[in-house]
């Protein structure tokens, strides 16, 4: 009975693996823009806003990428992100916010030569930005899909 169960399990796993071997998705060359959903933050006030990405696809790989994050009201997150009324009132919060900005810049660099945004590793302190990045890239790739 154990042998039959083992054989059935192997057959099931092999069948599942073969079903997943469909054709590789292809993308039209060009420049595409994608946007993530708006995130309103968690109960601790971490994360908010949305991300927008502009990617250039050539030969089924990303050859250029620009990723920017925005607050919920559409304000670009930049040098003043993490400040309150133009001042750094909480240095730790400001540092964390700026680390997220740097992470966003790194994500755009890391996808060059790839097509799957999930191959870009998340950077500690910039996890929300990573989630926005992945979602925005998938949105752009949907527009590029053949």
Summarize this structure as a short list of keywords or feature phrases.
disordered N terminus, 17% strand, 3 helices, 38% helix, 146 residues, alpha+beta, three-stranded antiparallel sheet, elongated, 3 strands, Sufe protein. Chain: A
Provide a descriptive summary of the structure in words.
It is built from 3 helices and 3 strands, in the order αβββαα. It has a 3-stranded antiparallel sheet with strand order 1-2-3. With 146 residues, it is of the alpha+beta class. The chain starts with a helix and ends with a helix. It has one domain (27-144): Sufe protein. Chain: A (Alpha-Beta Complex).
Major sheet characteristics: 3 strands, antiparallel
The overall pLDDT, averaged over residues, is 83
CATH architecture: Alpha-Beta Complex
Give the CA-CA distance, first to last residue: 48 Å
Write the H/E string, N to C: HEEEHH
Number of helices: 3
> Number of folding domains?
1
Instruction: Find the structural class using helix and strand composition.
Output: alpha+beta
Tell me the CATH topology.
Sufe protein. Chain: A
Low-confidence blocks of residues: 1-22
